[in-house]
Amino acid sequence: MESVLITGANRGIGYALAKALVATDFRVFAGCRKTENAVSLKKLGAAHGDLLQVLPLDVSSDESVAAAAHTLEGRVDIIVNNAGVMPERGDEKITSIDFDHFRDTFEINVLGCARVIRSFLPHLRRSNRPRILNLSSGLGSISERDNFSYYAYAVSKAALNMLTRSLAFELAPEGITIVAISPGWVRTDMGGDDASISAEESASALVEAIQGIGPNLNGQFLDRFGHAGKYVW
Ligand SMILES: NC(=O)c1ccc[n+]([C@@H]2O[C@H](COP(=O)([O-])OP(=O)(O)OC[C@H]3O[C@@H](n4cnc5c(N)ncnc54)[C@H](OP(=O)(O)O)[C@@H]3O)[C@@H](O)[C@H]2O)c1
User: Fold this and answer.
1) How far is the CA of 173 from the centre of ligand 1 (A)?
2) CB 165 within 8 A of CB 233
């Protein structure tokens, strides 16, 4: 049975993915920054016993990520860097950008992923088929950019794409596959009510991707089904 670490697993896509993975015979380490509020996730854990462990994990904190890595013994086969924020309204201009939004978004969406990967590398190295999925977004594509909305979020996802592509070269000799993957436009607190698919639909496609990806896709920007070609950097 493979083990998956998911960050931000208490709601949205992360929660739906945790639920779909435990139902598909994966062991899930469900990262969550405020475990005291994670009522649904705790219920899911209680229903699945050892298969789902709720793990306190704030990706913006060096101490929290290091403590989570210290808590987990053994192997992690897959890291899903799902935790993310989009604090903007989307209508900001250069004169009205809140630089604190930029700092917070970078801290979580970019450095958060780097922190988790660094701290959990020893766990991945124990796997026969190690994979990392960084949840990116079409808004992180530079070549498809045709407006100025969501500055901090879009810039953070473009930076995450570069982190992914760069790490692909560093980690390839160890057989670790790393990809950027877009979950689609999903009805969550972040995606809003008008989004095109439910969190469950996104999660079901992501499970397919998790099962399918391997070294042939290392360093690629994938759609939610794990296919290359739809998204361009
Ligand atoms: N929804 C979409 O349409 C869409 C499209 C493209 C990409 N994505 C990406 O998919 C991922 C999940 O999005 P979503 O729609 O599920 O968002 P969401 O509903 O807003 O959920 C975000 C999750 O991230 C967690 N999180 C935020 N900061 C964290 C931190 N410092 N440490 C640990 N967890 C933290 C949140 O925890 P709290 O409950 O504690 O805040 C929550 O569990 C994100 O990376 C997002 O950028 C989403």
Assistant:
1) 31
2) yes
Q: What is the pLDDT along the chain (233 residues), one digit of tens a residue?
A: 999 999 999 999 999 999 999 999 999 999 999 999 999 999 999 999 989 999 999 999 999 999 999 999 899 999 999 999 999 999 999 999 999 999 999 999 999 999 999 999 999 999 999 999 999 999 999 999 999 999 999 999 999 999 999 999 999 999 999 999 999 999 999 999 999 999 999 999 999 999 999 999 999 999 999 999 999 99
Asked if residue 230 is part of any domain, the answer here is no
Please give the distance, rounded to the nearest whole angstrom, from the Cα atom of residue 86 to the centre of ligand 1: 8
Q: Which of 15, 150, 153, 231 is catalytic?
A: 153
Domain-located, residue 119: yes
Q: Annotated catalytic, 15?
A: no
**Of 34, 157, 230, 231, catalytic:** 157
Number of domains present in the structure of the chain: 1
Nearest atom, ligand 1, residue 11 CA: 43
pTM: 0.98
- Residue 178's Cβ-side half-sphere holds a number of Cα atoms within 13 Å equal to 24
Query: Residue 180 C-alpha to ligand 1 middle, in angstroms?
Result: 15
**Ligand 1 atom at shortest distance from the alpha carbon of 60:** 31
Active site residue 231: no
Residue type, 195: A
User: Is 195 among the domain residues?
Assistant: yes
Mark 38-66 as b/e (b = at least 16 C-beta within 10 Å). beebbebbeebeebbbbbebbbbeeebbe
> Which residue range forms the structural domain that includes residue 201?
3-222
CATH number of domain containing 177:
3.40.50.720
